[in-house]
């Protein structure tokens, strides 16, 4: 059986969810509310949260009145996310296991959101184009694409080479480095309930710049705005924490 791609294996591990269990739900909610205020989407419009994780952004979109589908490659993430529509059945919200490189058949969306650095995981650069082409196919005419990526230049300049993180009795040893094209994070796990250390898992994300995204989006999208933070401050390649792109599907 072919070996899983690194992200398919790591993102579906319970240790991934444990390591990143401190993500700020309030920050995510405030970001989505501010972002939606810029997009002028129609009430009730169908939107896709692509690579949705456990669904924290999708829930906020649904609470704002949109018809939301969340899609993610990791079955464990989708299993967790499906608790939201069970708990809040009044929301127009659903989740599916899905590879972002593929079109979701018989679905059209007014907007596609790809948030919290959920892009650039692939070995082949052609897969990035495949993602963009699939998104364009799923968008309605003049549909909106939002990509929220890290600012690779700032991340590269401020890498913490090594650190230890504890979650209860479980310890994560983390190493970071970069090459010309990628930023890496290697995670080794010591769980006292296991006989041996687990991993290492290595996250590998393409160090995509604004110009890389401009080239990537040019075939199907018109880039409308770029922001550098969840407060939607202007993008500064040296100082911004994020690279947030708002693009419109070309006619």
Low-confidence runs: none
What general form does the structure show? Answer: globular
What is the CATH superfamily label of the largest domain?
Vaccinia Virus protein VP39
- Looking at the overall shape, the CATH architecture of the largest domain is 3-Layer(aba) Sandwich
Q: Regarding quaternary structure, how should these chains be classified?
A: single chain
User: What structural class is derived from the secondary structure elements?
Assistant: alpha/beta
Order of secondary-structure elements: HHHEHEHHEEHEHEEEEHEE
Query: In which order are the strands of the major sheet placed?
Result: 3-2-1-4-5-11-10
Task: Output the number of helix runs.
Answer: 9
Q: Please, could you describe this protein's structure?
A:
- The protein has nine helices and eleven strands.
- It has 251 residues and is an alpha/beta fold.
- It starts with 5 loop residues before the first helix and ends with a strand.
- The model has no long low-confidence stretch (mean pLDDT 93).
